[in-house]
Design brief:
Layout: H1 2-38, H2 43-65, H3 71-88, H4 94-116
Length: 138
């Protein structure tokens, strides 16, 4: 019974991942067709395509390892915030620019903190919380 439920949930996961991949590819095609139709490419368009590529990379990593690495959504967030800053224009409120730039710095710090866990010096020592038995002298 349990294996049937696990197989069904696994199938649903793979199906949703396929839908995300197909939707992302469709969005890329529509964006490229829009750029061709407009005969103009802006930096915001390129950043949107980069976001789509990051989503495809996240789908690939999930399909291969059945895990989502937290750095992918954070990179997508940084790119989306950068795109938002670019789309605002010159007459927008300067305080918003500071808030968005601060959000980018916070997300970048989160990426750095997540990367620090791979530094060997910062890894926890095994058995550090265990109480060592006292050795009796003879």
């Amino acid at each position: 019974m349990k294996s049937n439920v696990e197989n069904f949930v696994g199938f649903i996961e793979k199906a949703v991942i396929f839908v995300i991949l197909a939707s992302t590819i469709t969005a890329i095609i529509f964006e490229i067709l829009k750029m061709i139709d407009d005969r103009y490419v802006e930096l915001a368009d390129l950043l949107l395509l980069f976001i789509y590529v990051e989503v495809i990379g996240m789908v690939r990593v999930y399909y291969v390892s059945n895990r989502v690495r937290m750095t992918y959504p954070l990179f997508i967030a940084i790119t989306a915030l950068s795109r938002l800053i670019i789309l605002q224009g010159k007459d927008s409120n300067p305080e918003l620019l500071l808030y968005e730039a601060g959000a980018i710095v916070l997300v970048a710090l989160a990426v750095i903190i997540l990367r620090l866990r791979y530094v060997p010096v910062l890894r926890p020592i095994e058995d550090v919380d265990e109480i060592q038995p006292k050795i009796k002298k003879k």
